[in-house]
């Protein structure tokens, strides 16, 4: 048997440390080798034990989790899964942690911690396994918070468009999506995105992106018409399906059906609907992520005439979903993350044609 993945748990709550340790150690391929109540203790444990991955609380005494994460990624990069409170403030902090280099996060329950964390056991252990395999990079200098930019936004009553861009992502996807969207011009055709994320975080994610790029970004609502220069992010805990609009173009439908591939929202659900209604008028993008969600439906998109970009292994945090998409024959082109935005501009510029009325 291979050596288990070695985990250090960092949380100021003795109860949370105890419960996380118990849950993680139930998996034979995972082992908690140490725990720490604050970042100073964590620093010594990481130095002494050299874990494969850590869990890290966001709010801790003496030094908050973000400050510790920033220093760790600069001095001793270690894969981290954040344990975040499910609040608006917690969501914003978690997004900042992902910018600083955290691989993923789980939402800590605010009540009945033991039962709440037990319900998250499968999600937590899956994310720890993915994080242990993730590519984390040493930060060259303390990364500053990305400043919001003031740019003219497309009109909220803008034009629909016959072309559609559909993006799917999971682990590592929040930063990959940010990199792509920040490089796209306001005249880009409408974009729909499914990023694996729980309820309570997608609205903050959309607001953050909206403040950073020339596109208008929002958490999708049922009935939203897909407009040029706009981005619609599937809400956490719901599926997003794309339909044709009676007046031309497309419309978002938000559904509360069962999880698909253990995910809700599911990339498979969104891509399948895009294949059905957009066909050759669609461009697909599969970004970094764990698992295989969306691979089959992306192949269906390609079979119906869509052109699909898949992120290459070297630029992925986790080469799971892109690898499966390539294996399924879904990729029209495999490209580094840094080139996908310019390729989207070239591709959609070539097929742009006339907006729908």
Q: Which structural class matches the secondary elements?
A: alpha/beta
Output the CATH topology of the largest domain: Rossmann fold
Helical run tally: 12
Q: Could you give me the name of the CATH homologous superfamily of the largest domain?
A: Methylesterase CheB, C-terminal domain
Main location: cytoplasm
Pfam families: CheB_methylest, Response_reg
Modified residues (4-aspartylphosphate): 57
Protein name: Protein-glutamate methylesterase/protein-glutamine glutaminase
Offer a quick outline of the entry.
The protein has 357 residues and is an alpha/beta fold. The protein has helices spanning 14-25, 39-49, 65-75, 88-100, 113-119, 121-133, 173-181, 202-212, 267-277, 295-303, 321-327, 337-351, and strands at 5-10, 30-36, 53-57, 80-85, 104-108, 164-169, 191-195, 216-219, 225-226, 230-233, 239-244, 250-255, 282-286, 307-311, 333-335. The chain starts with a strand and ends in a 6-residue tail after the last helix.
């Amino acid at each position: 048997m291979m050596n288990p993945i070695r985990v250090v748990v960092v949380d100021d709550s003795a109860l949370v440390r105890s419960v996380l340790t118990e849950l993680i150690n139930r998996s034979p391929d995972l082992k908690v080798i140490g725990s720490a109540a604050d970042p100073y203790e964590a620093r010594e444990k990481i130095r002494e034990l050299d874990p494969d991955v850590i869990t890290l609380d966001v709010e801790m005494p003496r030094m908050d989790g973000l400050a510790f994460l920033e220093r760790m990624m600069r001095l001793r990069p270690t894969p981290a899964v954040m344990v975040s409170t499910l609040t608006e403030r917690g969501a914003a902090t978690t997004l900042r942690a992902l910018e600083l280099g955290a691989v993923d996060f789980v939402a800590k329950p605010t009540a009945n911690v033991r039962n709440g964390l037990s319900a998250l056991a499968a999600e937590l252990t899956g994310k720890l396994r993915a994080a242990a395999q993730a590519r984390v990079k040493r930060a060259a200098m303390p990364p500053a918070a990305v400043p919001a930019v003031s740019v003219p936004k497309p009109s909220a009553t803008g034009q629909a468009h016959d072309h559609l861009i559909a993006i799917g992502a999971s682990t590592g996807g929040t930063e990959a999506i940010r990199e792509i969207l920040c490089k796209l011009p306001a005249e880009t055709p409408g974009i729909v995105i499914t990023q694996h994320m729980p309820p309570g975080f997608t609205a903050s994610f959309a607001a953050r992106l909206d403040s950073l790029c020339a596109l208008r970004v929002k958490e999708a609502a049922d009935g939203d018409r897909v407009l040029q220069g706009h981005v619609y992010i599937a809400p956490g805990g719901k599926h997003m399906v794309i339909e044709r609009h009676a007046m031309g173009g497309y419309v978002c439908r938000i559904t509360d059906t069962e999880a698909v591939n253990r995910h809700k929202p599911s990339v498979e659900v969104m891509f399948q609907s895009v294949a059905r209604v957009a066909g050759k008028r669609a461009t697909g993008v599969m970004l970094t992520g764990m698992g295989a969600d969306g691979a089959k439906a992306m192949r269906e998109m390609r079979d119906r005439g869509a052109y699909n970009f898949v992120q290459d292994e070297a630029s992925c945090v986790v080469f799971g979903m892109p690898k499966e998409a390539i294996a399924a024959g879904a990729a029209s082109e495999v490209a580094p993350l840094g080139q996908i935005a310019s390729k989207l501009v070239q591709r959609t510029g070539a097929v742009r044609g006339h907006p729908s009325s």
